[in-house]
């Protein structure tokens, strides 16, 4: 039982402890040491006060006295004091004793990094066991993992805070400016502006934007008709000698063979535009350069109300051939005779279109460097201007006749007769040349009588065959097995849970596959409620999982720049409906049978891209896809774990392709769904995107 005198003494030293701690916190070490010494004089069995006394004495440089205080704490069973005894002994250059003290401390705290560091600093590694170092290493790895996780979450939070919904684009442009370009040498850029039949106010906007450029080494040639040359706008050439108005093609013939920047009057430049062009010209060896643009209406307050951004991606001639609106400007390394001749016949817009849709690659700068100006509302109320010749009529697109290639449609199935019949009937009914179709069923252990009867009734049909696949389900092996027996020119791999919606789908495939640079043609898949299930596959979004583009969007929605409903290159397409030339499928090695259920279609697309082939998303071919109706969705832990393991397998084969998608402009925000929000990418990501785009084959994974 405690005595009254003890409690009286406790009360008496309490204020003294507070005063000592306050002196310690103020780093008044002499005062603190005196107070702690007084306290232990009254209460010698307080180990934590002995420890504080040792700390204060150590700060005063009294290492031997500090050692004594720490040993008093040890005597009172405070074994944490061994570390501090080691420090005091080390300060006295008593190295061996210090190492022994640290060793005792390590017995008490075997995972203390501070103690291990002290022993290593002394060179006393003989006190460190393999088990101790292994435990320390694991502790550090755990700590690093925790810090990295926190860092990743912080980075995601920063990214989320910086994104702007697409519908708020005007505000985004008002508050975010184009970053300054990396420094480039002083390069003279020759600008050729097609102002034939232009609205003079639009031309004024173009010229004003040129004068506002951060680099001044440019010369502009304005190709104008007589009405423009006689307009006050032509006085710009008298004010700034860099402007030259010409009305004859002979006056720009000297530009032939040199570098030229082509644009239509009414296109205005961001102040950083030519600086970025100069950087790209100096840094990358590309025959042509273009960038993103938007639309704008100039307001009397000198600001521009911007809308409708067009964010392109790694050069894609298929999209640029079919899209409603191509790049607003184009820099050509060599302005050739063909380009000059086409300009005479048509317009700058048509020269841009024909060059960007050629097989030659171009480098895309992922920044909105220009704006196409529209008439302000006030001007729209005026009378129409006199008619001018229309030079912007699209050149006739090349027409391809569908050839006589025979198509084999390979469908793996197990039972589910009703669904299978729907797929087959719709495929045959919607084909333009059904006589050139063969249906190949890969039967994976069907056991229901109705489907067995169906197979038997069609057994003698020359365009229908069934291949038995009596093995555990492996989608890749099933399709590879079927292809061993095929002789047709084209193979379509199709799920049994689809319904074809497009008339003439077969000829669409034949035409696309006439281009020998095309490896695979995929389709646009819809859910039963007519929302989009698949419009190509996008990578590098959110947590890095592959995502179906346009998923759950309305069937009628065109998407940014019309990409949801325009043929274009994509990183991969789904094997639910997937067409390829048979000889190419054979030469590339077929599907990877290590991927039995999922990602086998993606892996083949990556392999084809590595070999230089394009993967096309063709939205003109539409189907219903009653997704995974045969095998079901991944809902159990086992199925989810299997899917995760196959995704790991794909990632191990193509780690870069999983993180970087050439069909995604870095100005799109990463959090899914894709193409719904904007961001300002760091300069490093802009340049990295351009480096990837400048490779010999920028679409190779």
TrEMBL record:
Residues in TPR repeats: 79-112
Swiss-Prot/TrEMBL keywords: TPR repeat
InterPro entries: Glyco_trans_2-like, Nucleotide-diphossugar_trans, TPR-like_helical_dom_sf, TPR_rpt
Domain Glycosyltransferase 2-like, chain residue ranges per copy: 409-588
Annotated PANTHER family: RHAMNOSYLTRANSFERASE WBBL
Protein name: GT2 family glycosyltransferase/tetratricopeptide (TPR) repeat protein
């Amino acid at each position: 039982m405690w005595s009254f005198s003890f409690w009286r003494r406790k009360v008496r030293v309490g204020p003294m402890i507070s005063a000592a701690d306050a002196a310690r916190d103020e780093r008044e070490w002499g005062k603190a040491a005196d107070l702690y010494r007084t306290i232990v004089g009254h209460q010698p069995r307080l180990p934590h006060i002995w420890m504080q006394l040792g700390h204060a004495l150590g700060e005063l440089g009294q290492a031997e006295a500090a050692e004594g205080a720490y040993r008093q704490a040890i005597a009172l069973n405070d074994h944490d004091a061994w570390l501090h005894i080691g420090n005091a002994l080390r300060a006295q250059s008593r190295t061996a004793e210090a190492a022994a003290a640290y060793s005792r401390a390590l017995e008490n705290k075997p995972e203390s990094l501070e103690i291990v560091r002290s022993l290593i600093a002394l060179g006393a590694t003989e006190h460190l066991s393999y088990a101790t170092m292994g435990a320390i290493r694991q502790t550090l790895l755990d700590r690093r993992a925790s810090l990295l996780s926190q860092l990743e979450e912080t980075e995601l939070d920063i990214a989320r805070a910086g994104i702007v919904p697409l519908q708020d684009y005007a505000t985004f442009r008002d508050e975010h400016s184009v970053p300054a370009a990396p420094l480039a040498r002083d390069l003279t850029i020759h600008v050729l502006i097609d102002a034939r039949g232009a609205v003079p106010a639009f031309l004024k906007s173009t010229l004003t934007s040129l004068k506002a450029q951060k680099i001044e080494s440019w010369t502009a040639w304005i190709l104008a008709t007589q009405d423009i040359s006689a307009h006050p706008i032509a006085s710009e050439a008298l004010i700034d000698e860099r402007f030259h108005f010409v009305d004859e093609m002979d006056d720009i013939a000297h530009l032939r063979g040199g570098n030229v920047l082509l644009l239509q009057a009414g296109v205005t430049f961001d102040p950083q535009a030519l600086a970025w062009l100069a950087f790209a010209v100096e840094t990358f060896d590309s025959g042509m350069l273009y960038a993103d643009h938007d639309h704008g209406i100039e307001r009397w307050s000198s600001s521009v109300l911007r809308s409708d951004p067009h964010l392109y991606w790694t050069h894609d001639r298929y999209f640029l051939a079919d899209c409603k609106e191509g790049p607003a400007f184009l820099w050509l390394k060599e302005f050739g005779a063909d380009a000059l001749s086409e300009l005479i016949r048509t317009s700058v817009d048509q020269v841009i279109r024909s060059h960007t849709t050629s097989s030659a690659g171009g480098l895309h700068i992922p920044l909105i460097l220009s704006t196409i100006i529209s008439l302000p509302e006030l001007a729209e109320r005026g009378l129409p201007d006199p008619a001018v010749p229309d030079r912007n009529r699209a050149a006739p697109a090349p027409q391809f006749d569908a050839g006589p290639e025979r198509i084999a449609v390979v469908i793996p199935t197990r039972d589910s007769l009703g669904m299978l019949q729907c797929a087959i009937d719709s495929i045959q009914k919607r084909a333009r040349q059904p006589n050139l179709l063969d249906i190949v069923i890969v039967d994976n252990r069907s056991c229901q009588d109705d489907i067995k009867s169906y197979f038997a009734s069609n057994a003698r049909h020359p365009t229908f065959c069934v291949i038995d696949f009596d093995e555990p389900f492996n989608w890749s092996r099933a399709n590879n097995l079927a292809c061993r027996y095929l002789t047709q020119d084209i193979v379509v791999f199709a799920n049994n849970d689809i319904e074809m919606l497009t008339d003439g789908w077969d000829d669409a495939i034949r035409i696309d596959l006439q281009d020998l640079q095309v490896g695979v043609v995929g389709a646009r898949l819809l859910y039963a409620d007519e929302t989009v299930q698949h419009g190509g596959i996008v990578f590098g979004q959110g947590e890095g999982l592959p995502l179906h583009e346009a998923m759950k969007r309305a069937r009628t929605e065109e998407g940014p720049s019309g990409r949801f409903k325009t043929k274009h290159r994509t990183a991969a397409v789904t094997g639910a409906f997937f067409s390829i030339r048979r000889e190419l499928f054979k030469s590339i090695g077929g599907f990877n049978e290590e991927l039995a259920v999922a990602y086998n279609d993606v892996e083949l697309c990556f392999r084809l891209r590595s070999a230089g082939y394009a993967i096309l998303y063709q939205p003109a071919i539409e189907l219903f896809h009653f997704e995974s109706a045969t095998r079901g969705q991944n809902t159990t832990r086992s199925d989810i774990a299997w899917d995760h393991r196959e995704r790991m397998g794909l990632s191990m084969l193509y780690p870069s392709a999983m993180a970087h998608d050439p069909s995604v402009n870095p100005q799109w925000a990463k959090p899914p769904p894709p193409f719904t929000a904007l961001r300002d990418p760091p300069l490093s990501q802009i340049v990295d995107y351009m480096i990837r785009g400048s490779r010999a084959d920028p679409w190779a994974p």
